[in-house]
Amino acid sequence: MSEGSLTFRKNERLYGKLLIDQLFSKGNRCSLAAFPLRVVYRVRDRIDGELPERVLISVPKRCFKRAVKRNRVKRQIREAFRKNKQILLQNLPEQSGSQILMAFLWQDTRLHDTAEIEKKVISLLQQMSERI
């Protein structure tokens, strides 16, 4: 692994209404679940200069009313993805010209251990890499 491979920079985040609408619109969108997480993803053509993956992490207010808990869960998911994104990137070669847009969505109303969340993220990334 290169030194910069274990980072999570701003240009890896999925933001902007157009990209988010493109991810959640009807069509060839795929979804996988490993409770308490669900991932929605779509493979598209990459525009020059963009990274091969873009990630959105969402924890709804109906699950946790307090922002402290929502932020904790988002931090746990972000850390698990940052440490294990190589699982997915191995099957998405740089020269292929494709990019994967993905959204991790939280579905439970209780907090989980970081190790448990990391196992679920790894499981989802492995399933996604098999399907791509």
Automatic annotation (TrEMBL):
<dbReference type="InterPro" id="IPR020539">
    <property type="entry name" value="RNase_P_CS"/>
</dbReference>
<keyword id="KW-0255">Endonuclease</keyword>
<keyword id="KW-0694">RNA-binding</keyword>
<dbReference type="Pfam" id="PF00825">
    <property type="entry name" value="Ribonuclease_P"/>
</dbReference>
<protein>
    <recommendedName>
        <fullName>Ribonuclease P protein component</fullName>
        <ecNumber>3.1.26.5</ecNumber>
    </recommendedName>
</protein>
<dbReference type="InterPro" id="IPR014721">
    <property type="entry name" value="Ribsml_uS5_D2-typ_fold_subgr"/>
</dbReference>
<dbReference type="GO" id="GO:0004526">
    <property type="term" value="F:ribonuclease P activity"/>
</dbReference>
<comment type="similarity">
    <text>Belongs to the RnpA family.</text>
</comment>
<keyword id="KW-0378">Hydrolase</keyword>
<dbReference type="InterPro" id="IPR000100">
    <property type="entry name" value="RNase_P"/>
</dbReference>
<keyword id="KW-0540">Nuclease</keyword>
<keyword id="KW-0819">tRNA processing</keyword>
<dbReference type="InterPro" id="IPR020568">
    <property type="entry name" value="Ribosomal_Su5_D2-typ_SF"/>
</dbReference>
<comment type="function">
    <text>RNaseP catalyzes the removal of the 5'-leader sequence from pre-tRNA to produce the mature 5'-terminus. It can also cleave other RNA substrates such as 4.5S RNA. The protein component plays an auxiliary but essential role in vivo by binding to the 5'-leader sequence and broadening the substrate specificity of the ribozyme.</text>
</comment>
<comment type="subunit">
    <text>Consists of a catalytic RNA component (M1 or rnpB) and a protein subunit.</text>
</comment>
